[in-house]
């Protein structure tokens, strides 16, 4: 029996939410953009009118204004977007308990088991969901309907905005195979270039390519992409704990990064940012009831935007803010001179190799009572922040760089999609 899989994608999500919240913005060329004074001045989302003027996501705001002189720019409000994302998922969950988020604005839905309760017609259900999202949230969605996740995603991308598209065993060779290979999920620019060098430019050519050729050019990933192109994706729709309790895809890492308002060329500025990021990572670990064995720091150079990372594994997993911050700072200090010769544009701190916080731990013979007290302090600070906001308690080291005083990296953190190859 073919599965009934939907992929729902909220169109121009950030911009649509802003227009739903503020009716005076409807029908005007609108972009949601970062703060230019902190060097985050790029287009994060654009309305249909802005898109018609040639505005592109990811370009600088000054470039967007040059294309569209009457452009209206509003700052992002991630807490509002998360609320709308949750409201959309509540609608999806009224049709199936198998809802898998793919970022804030996209979800897969598996209707296979529940479809008989909704009349047995996946297209009708998709149309009903689309209408409910528009009526209840003021936003539009594009929905793809197919028997697998990859083709459902292709369908939602094929027609935008506000459309329902079915990719079926009867039409996929016409609709999918004639499309550029870059339109297939997880075929990025580097993979597309490798396939092009082998004479593969269309999804149908990838589907019919020699397995040995793909293995030689791309390794095992080549065979996975070939299966995707042939409609042989059988990966399940995996609900996350955020959608329904339990049974979700396990968290593999927790991290946070920031482009600094100015180039980082002093040790005190670098330390302030590292501790600010580590604070967010440790707090999120504790909220998820996890501990990490591995701590990593990522660096982006200010001159050529090149990036690299360093990591180390601790003898015992931890969620302690101080230990994670000191470890990340040690990794950075050992790799960067921080003497002005190599200014940095941004930093990233990540915790991985995770275990549940209630997992048994082997203790040292000399039990560290001070660490136990520090763990209690972290818990007390978490309680204060839940009540009064993340800025109510700040470490002194985080105040060394005045440009970071008003930054709340935890509040503004965005959870990005998790892929098969991640």
TrEMBL record:
Cofactor notes: Binds 2 magnesium ions per subunit.
Keyword Transcription regulation appears in the UniProt entry: no
Principal cellular location given in the protein's record: cytoplasm
Active site positions, chain numbering: 106
Function: Poorly processive, error-prone DNA polymerase involved in untargeted mutagenesis. Copies undamaged DNA at stalled replication forks, which arise in vivo from mismatched or misaligned primer ends. These misaligned primers can be extended by PolIV. Exhibits no 3'-5' exonuclease (proofreading) activity. May be involved in translesional synthesis, in conjunction with the beta clamp from PolIII.
HAMAP family, per database record: DNApol_IV
Species this chain originates from: Rubneribacter badeniensis
Subunit structure: Monomer.
Localization annotation: Cytoplasm
GO molecular function: damaged DNA binding; DNA-directed DNA polymerase activity; magnesium ion binding
Primary gene name: dinB
GO cellular component, one term: cytosol
PROSITE patterns in alphabetical order: UMUC
Single biological process term from Gene Ontology: DNA-templated DNA replication
Lineage, highest ranks first: Bacteria, Bacillati, Actinomycetota, Coriobacteriia, Eggerthellales
Alphabetized UniProt keyword annotations: Cytoplasm, DNA damage, DNA repair, DNA replication, DNA-binding, DNA-directed DNA polymerase, Magnesium, Metal-binding, Mutator protein, Nucleotidyltransferase, Transferase
Site feature: Substrate discrimination: 14
EC numbers for this chain: 2.7.7.7
Protein name: DNA polymerase IV
Domain of life: Bacteria
Catalytic activity: DNA(n) + a 2'-deoxyribonucleoside 5'-triphosphate = DNA(n+1) + diphosphate
SUPFAM superfamilies recorded: DNA/RNA polymerases, Lesion bypass DNA polymerase (Y-family), little finger domain
Cofactor: Mg(2+)
Domain UmuC: 5-188
Assigned protein family: Belongs to the DNA polymerase type-Y family.
Pfam families linked to this entry: IMS (PF00817), IMS_C (PF11799)
Annotated binding of Mg(2+), by residue: 9, 105
Coiled coil segments of this chain: none
PANTHER family according to UniProt: DNA POLYMERASE KAPPA (PTHR11076:SF33), DNA REPAIR POLYMERASE UMUC / TRANSFERASE FAMILY MEMBER (PTHR11076)
């Amino acid at each position: 029996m073919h599965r009934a899989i939907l992929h729902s994608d909220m169109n121009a999500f950030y911009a649509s939410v802003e227009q739903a919240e503020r009716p005076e913005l409807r029908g005007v060329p609108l972009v949601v953009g970062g703060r230019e004074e902190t060097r985050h001045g790029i287009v994060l989302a654009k309305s249909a009118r802005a898109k018609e003027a040639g505005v592109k996501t990811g370009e600088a705001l000054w470039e967007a204004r040059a294309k569209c002189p009457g452009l209206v720019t509003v700052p992002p409000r991630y807490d509002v977007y998360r609320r709308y994302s949750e409201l959309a998922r509540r609608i999806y969950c009224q049709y199936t308990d198998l809802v898998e988020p793919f970022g804030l604005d996209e979800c897969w839905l598996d209707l296979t088991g529940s479809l008989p309760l909704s009349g047995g017609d996946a297209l009708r259900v998709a149309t009903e969901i689309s209408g409910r999202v528009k009526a209840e949230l003021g936003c539009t969605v594009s929905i793809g309907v197919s028997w697998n996740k990859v083709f459902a995603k292709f369908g939602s991308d094929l027609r935008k905005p506000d459309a329902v598209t079915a990719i079926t065993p009867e039409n996929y060779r016409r609709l999918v195979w004639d499309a550029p290979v870059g339109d297939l999920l997880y075929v990025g620019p580097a993979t597309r270039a490798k396939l092009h060098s082998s004479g593969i430019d269309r999804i149908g050519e990838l589907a019919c390519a020699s397995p040995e050729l793909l293995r030689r050019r791309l390794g095992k990933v080549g065979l996975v992409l070939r299966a995707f192109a042939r409609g042989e994706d059988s990966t399940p729709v995996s609900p996350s704990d955020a959608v329904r309790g339990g049974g979700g895809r396990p968290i593999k890492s927790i991290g946070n990064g920031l482009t600094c308002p100015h180039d980082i060329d002093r040790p005190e500025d670098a330390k302030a940012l590292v501790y600010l990021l580590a604070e967010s990572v440790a707090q999120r670990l504790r909220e998820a009831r996890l501990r990490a064995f591995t701590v990593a720091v990522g660096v982006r150079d200010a001159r050529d935007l090149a990036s690299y990372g360093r990591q180390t594994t601790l003898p015992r997993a931890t969620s302690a803010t101080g230990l994670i911050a000191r470890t990340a700072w040690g990794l950075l200090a050992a790799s960067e001179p921080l003497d002005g010769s190599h200014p940095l544009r941004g930093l990233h701190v990540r915790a991985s190799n995770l275990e549940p916080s209630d997992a048994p731990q082997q203790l040292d013979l000399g039990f560290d009572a001070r660490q136990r007290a520090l763990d209690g302090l972290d818990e007390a600070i978490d309680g204060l922040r839940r009540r009064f906001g993340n800025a109510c308690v700040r470490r002194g080291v985080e105040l060394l760089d005045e440009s970071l005083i008003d930054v709340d990296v935890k509040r503004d953190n965005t959870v990005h999609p998790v892929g098969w190859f991640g």
